[in-house]
Design brief:
9 strands; elongated; nine-stranded mixed β-sheet; DNAb Helicase, Chain A; Rossmann fold; alpha/beta
Length: 475
């Protein structure tokens, strides 16, 4: 008897011996079919994650197909009804003999689910091998490496989804309730937390950095959105000791480190970058900041050529190797798109992918974004979530939208008073708070005196009082 490269028999009967392989288990395939015949109540359960192509043996695939047809037509399944539906198999064997022997030799229907999982696992393994072979052939034919890798990743993601047990993708509420109550109890007793705080108590009133949520921070150029995003990453890494992964498409990693030293150590960034302007007070502050950062799980990635698939892979790798507390991405408008669609369509696809990745990684995903010029046409120049640039899909996908607003032409703006507008919040209240931007240190701190803007509408109102001050960092 001859076999092809995948071990596929030619005119073999189902009982013929076959070469052993990790790519298939004919015994499991026989047992799945036999279990369906012996106990028809198992057909729907076993078929949930199987299709005809999952069976390596042609006879098993064909019998499975006939069983499915009988089930759809509400015909009771046994060896007789199967033989009546299709007396002869394509390879010339009699259905009655094949189905009867499969049922007779099935060890136990109690293990039917185990047999089905084994069939599925081997089927996915065969597809992995076939995908790899296809990639090799494409490379040998001269295809571009990036194109081959992109297709390979798409194939792997599809295979991952195929390998999932459908029954585990949904649950009844009664199964979830005990977990939910235990979570409430553990949070009440301070044994677990909903998420990470931002380090700004006035912002914490509205926002918690919770797992699986996509938090969009948007602002005009120079408003401080990068400062706020990096500050949140520092908070998670330095204060909470959880790994923070920062993707920067604008700055080099050494620039980000200088900013972190300035922020944590209260050392003017200008002094750090110049070097010669460092003062006697700056050195011990820099040393203290370096000491905190040295052991902080803050991961920086400054590769501006990263695509969405690269971001996904790096996120998975960091989580697997180091754990992951939060991800910051600066900024969405700079991520290269895939395909030939418009930039609007590309950014929309990227936004959806980031939202899915936040859920997959189970961490807060802080995405920075630009605003369009619409706020400049308003009297008070205050932005809204509809001013997000590139795609309206960003607003739709976001769980939270924080708009960074500072009017540098006003007295309060010149003093660093910055309004953080929470314009969308799926899990909490909307509103705004006011913080102090310390430009020299590139950080935001609480505003002493708690200055509040007089109005949140589009009317111009006079500035009421000088209630802002130098600000103070949160503990």
């Amino acid at each position: 008897m001859s076999y092809d490269e995948m071990g596929m028999p030619g005119s073999a009967t189902y009982l013929d011996p076959v070469p052993e392989s990790r790519l298939y288990s004919h015994e499991s395939e026989y047992a799945v079919i036999g279990s369906m015949i012996k106990q028809s109540a198992l057909i729907d359960e076993l078929s949930a994650n199987l299709d005809r192509n999952d069976f390596h043996h042609p006879a098993c695939a064909e019998v499975f197909e006939v069983i499915q047809a009988c089930q759809r037509n509400q015909i009771p399944v046994d060896i007789v009804t199967l033989a009546e539906a299709r007396p002869m198999l394509s390879d010339g064997q009699r259905m009655l003999a094949v189905a009867g022997t499969m049922a007779q030799n099935t060890p136990s229907t109690a293990n039917a689910a185990v047999y089905a999982r084994e069939v599925r696992r081997r089927a996915v393994a065969r597809r992995v091998v076939m995908a790899a072979q296809s990639m090799i052939e494409s490379l040998q034919d001269g295809a571009a490496l990036d194109d081959v890798l992109a297709k390979g990743q798409q194939a792997w993601l599809a295979l991952e989804a195929e390998g999932m047990d459908t029954s585990r993708r949904y649950r009844f509420v009664g199964e979830i309730l005990p977990e939910a109550i235990n979570t409430v109890d553990s949070r009440f007793n301070r044994q677990s937390i909903l998420g990470y705080d931002t380090g700004l108590p006035s912002l914490d009133h509205y926002v918690t950095l919770s797992p699986g949520r996509m938090i969009v921070i948007a602002g005009a150029p120079g408003s401080g959105k990068t400062t706020l995003g990096l500050g949140l990453a520092e908070r998670v890494a330095v204060h909470h000791k959880a790994t923070s992964l920062v993707f920067s498409f604008e700055m080099e990693d050494d620039e980000l480190v200088y900013r972190s030293i300035a922020s944590i150590g209260q050392v003017p960034l200008k002094h750090l970058t110049e070097g010669h302007s460092m003062t006697d007070d700056d050195w011990p502050r820099m040393t203290a900041a370096v000491s905190k950062l040295m052991d902080a799980p803050l991961v920086l990635c400054d590769d501006a050529s990263l695509t969405m698939k690269d971001i996904r892979q790096i996120g998975r790798t960091v989580k697997r190797n180091h754990g992951l507390g939060a991800v910051v991405l600066d900024y969405i408008g700079l991520i290269p798109g895939e395909g030939n669609g418009s930039r609007y369509e590309q950014v929309s696809a990227i936004s959806k992918a980031l939202k899915r990745l936040a859920k997959e990684l189970g961490v807060p995903f802080i995405v920075l974004a630009q605003l369009n010029r619409a706020p400049n046409t308003r009297g008070n120049k205050r932005p809204t979530k509809s001013d997000l640039r590139d795609s309206g899909q960003i607003e739709a996908d976001a769980d939270v939208v924080i708009l960074v607003h500072r009017d540098d032409e006003s007295d309060e703006g010149k003093a660093g008073v910055t309004e953080l507008i929470v314009d969308k919040n799926r899990h909490g209240p909307k509103g705004s708070c006011n913080v102090q931007h310390q430009g020299a240190f590139h950080r935001f701190v609480e505003l002493i005196g708690g200055y509040r803007f007089d109005s949140e509408d589009d009317d111009d109102r006079p500035f009421a009082g000088r209630q802002y001050g130098k600000g103070r960092a949160s503990a």
